[in-house]
Design brief:
Oligomer: single chain
Mean pLDDT: 93
Number of helices: 3
Number of strands: 20
Length: about 300
């Protein structure tokens, strides 16, 4: 890595830590209100699990402008549940779940195994800084599972430009960088971690109803990092995960109506009784350049070591 990039990464990491230290524990904690969990971090406000539904962050509002940033199905919501043989229901959205506020102000949502879902699913949502949400997703298998995937979805409003962090390709000037998802490349675009991920993506899982998707395979990831931009507000939205936990990043072209970014978590076999956790992070912030976005991602990976 270049010295300048390393310096930028150190600065970004320091600013992130400073922002976290300036926010009080109360500001970064969720608050239980009936079946819902409210948050107001100083940067954003909204609701986790509206009316107790298995959704992520909804009605997310930028405090400074009063603008709604999230779509109806939320940010960081657990959607499709897929393995080599089966799609488990429509998604975690329609699988009954329960949630509780933890002592540190985070929220744990839990889906219990049933005849239609041969595994437990758990998600812990925690604000690490005013614009930084960490999500830890845990699967505990009740039978052997082949190439299980948990598809983590984020639907943004007003972010019409979508980018994914890829390895060197002609469009990025022969070096790692952000590749814009344009309509010319197809409606639905998936960026794999490696050749093994391509095989998994194309094993037939995405042809299963409802709403099958024909993904256009795009250049491989430099790291699981997606970015959407709202130029009007100067806002950037980043979704990221460590490479061992996420085998693909997906998005429609930028202006397509879903306004979404997706992380394909796990993509691995589970033995009955085995459990594993995939980590991911959402960052919302102003005036984040491409280089700063990459530095934030590198700082996140360093933080996880």
């Amino acid at each position: 890595m270049r010295l300048g990039a390393r310096f930028t990464g150190d600065v970004i990491a320091g600013l992130t830590a400073l922002a976290c230290s300036m926010a009080t524990a109360a500001e970064l904690a969720f608050t239980a209100e009936g079946k819902e969990f409210r948050f107001e971090t100083g940067l954003v406000r909204g609701t986790l699990r509206p009316q107790g539904k298995s959704l992520g962050l909804t009605a997310v509002v930028d405090v400074a402008s009063g603008t709604t940033l999230s779509g109806a199905y939320g940010l960081c919501s657990h959607y499709r549940l897929l393995d080599a043989e089966t799609r488990y229901g429509g998604g975690a959205w329609d699988w009954a779940s329960a949630a509780r506020l933890l002592p540190n102000g985070s929220v744990e949502a839990a889906w219990a195994a049933d005849p239609a879902h041969p595994f437990d699913l758990k998600a812990v949502y925690r604000w690490a800084a005013p614009g930084t949400l960490d999500v830890a997703t845990t699967v505990a298998a009740k039978k052997d599972l082949s190439r299980l995937e948990v598809f983590l979805a984020s639907y943004f409003v007003g972010f019409p430009a979508s980018f994914v962090y890829v390895k060197a390709c002609p469009e990025t000037g022969g070096k790692p960088g952000f590749l814009e998802a344009t309509k010319a490349a197809g409606i639905w675009q998936m960026f794999p971690r490696d050749d093994g991920a391509v095989t998994l993506i194309q094993d037939g899982r995405w042809r299963r109803s409802p709403n099958p998707v024909d993904w256009r395979i795009m250049p491989p990831l430099a790291g699981p990092l997606g970015l959407r931009r709202n130029a009007k507000l100067g806002l950037a939205a980043l979704v990221m995960a460590p490479p061992d936990d996420c085998f693909a990043v997906a998005t429609p072209y930028g202006e397509e109506g879903h306004g979404s970014l997706y992380l394909s978590l796990f993509g691995r076999d589970f033995k009955s009784g085995e459990a594993a956790t995939a980590r991911s992070r959402l960052i919302l912030g102003r005036d984040i350049t491409d280089d700063q976005a990459i530095a934030l991602y590198e700082a996140y990976l360093k933080e996880l070591k």
